[in-house]
Amino acid sequence: MLVRRLIARLLDWLLVLVVAWPLVHEPVLVVLCAAVYDALLLRLNTLGKALTGLRVVGPASGLSLRRVLARTLVTTALPGAGVVLVLTGLGWREPALMANVGWQQPWVVVGEHVGSGSAGWLSSLLLVSGFVLLVLSVVEALDLRGTRTWHDRKAGTAVVRLKVAAR
Fold first, then answer.
1. In contact, 30 and 21? CB cutoff 8 Å
2. Apex 151 CA angle, 60 and 64, nearest 5
3. Contact 140, 149 (CB under 8 A)
4. Could you tell me if residue 23 is left (phi over 0), alpha (psi between -120 and 50 degrees) or otherwise beta?
5. Contact in structure between 147 and 159 (CB atoms under 8 Å)
6. Does the model's pTM come out above 0.70?
7. What distance in Å separates the CA atoms of residue 71 and residue 103, rounded to the nearest whole number?
């Protein structure tokens, strides 16, 4: 079940990346697109889950907005933020979003000469913070008990395998 869940998650992220990246060219906005995709399709089914034969279910009362948002925050927004922080710490420079709000990016491109010590310090902090978020996301996803991981237990959801109709 864990492998199916991982494949479904990777397929969903790949779909969002292929569709969103050419439009926005900004990692933060791609993560936001992924979170919106997950939140909107959680009550139905994401493409990755449909292809792997999985479905997210809630209690008999259904998936409330609170449950959907809680699950989306932990499964999509936190690891997405980790990826953005790692890219930023490594010197990713995609100025679309930050330039529009007048932000002067303090990080540097890998291989570029660092003019001040604080920029290197900030890059390291962002890189470590991103790795911490990614490791926490992996650890919580590996806490699988039956059909429920940690984020499923906190959101009151479960991922179940769909039965294939006999032909």
1. yes
2. 35
3. yes
4. alpha
5. yes
6. yes
7. 31
Strand partners, 158: 57
CA 113 to chain centre: 32
* Element spanning 41, H or E: helix 27-41
pLDDT digits (tens, 9 = 90+) for 134-145: 999 888 888 888
- DSSP class per residue in 90-153: TT---THHHHHTT-------TTSPP-SHHHHHHHHHHHHHHHHHHHHHHHHHH--BTTB-HHHH
* Residue owning tokens 């806490």: 143
Give the helix/strand (H/E) hosting 2: helix 2-24
Query: Vertex 141, ends 151 and 35: CA angle to 5°?
Result: 60
Residues 6+ away with beta carbon under 8 Å from 148 = 157, 158, 159
Q: Per-residue pLDDT tens for 42-86? A: 878 899 999 999 988 888 777 888 888 888 888 888 899 999 888
